[in-house]
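hey so u asked for the seq, here:
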Amino acid sequence: MKKFIAILLMAGLSVCSVLAEDTEKTSLNYGIRLGADVYSVISDTEREIYPSHGGFGGEISFNMMYRVGQNLYLHPAVGVVYRDFRVYEEGNVSADCGWSCSSENWEGYDVNSFVYLDIPVMVQWQIPRILYFEVGAFVDVLLFAHEENVRPEKFRNERVFDDRRFGAGVAAGLGHEFSSGLFIDTRVSFQLTDLVDGDRRRLTDVREEFEMREENGEYHTTVIAHHEDYLGGDYYKLLKFQVGIGFWF
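ran it, structure tokens below
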């Protein structure tokens, strides 16, 4: 995955270099942008909703830049984002359920991959030929989700959450634009909506304690204690770090 992102960025840089010519900014400009992402899941629980608490990804977007004042621009975009969460797992049934089980081993990567439609709207302040800063908000829509498990199905834990189809968050970044129209930047974004959707009560572990007594030669069982332990968390957010490269036509 890391090699794929590196190749993608190198290809984007090559294309932008070929197209690069000195251009003068107009009131409305169009461009393309490629980004490489690193994700971290922020939650108050150690229970992993995806194979790991972090992942990698990338995106490609069509961008617009509209000048609203001196050095002040509106920067909306429409892009396609890929997210990849994976972790290596190996095990066998004897470790899970004792020697009474038949022998069965597995190893490989558990993977959750997603494709989103992403729509950020940023406000950009430029210090010409030096740096630009931008802040804004975004919404995303889940287009496609794929899950792979190497653990045999009969030994998997039940998945209690659905992937949330609509999300929203905030973002900030800084970058540099060359006179040719080529630009490089870095962004950090935080998703305000939870990554998952579902009934969190399904994560409750119910345990009961029993007392057995004998009466007239018969055994009777009585529940003497009832415990419900919530195994989930109150929030599942996403923090994303990104580096990008693009070109204004």
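The domain at 2-201+236-248 is CATH 2.40.160.20 (Porin). Helices lie at 2-19, 93-97.
lmk if thats what u needed
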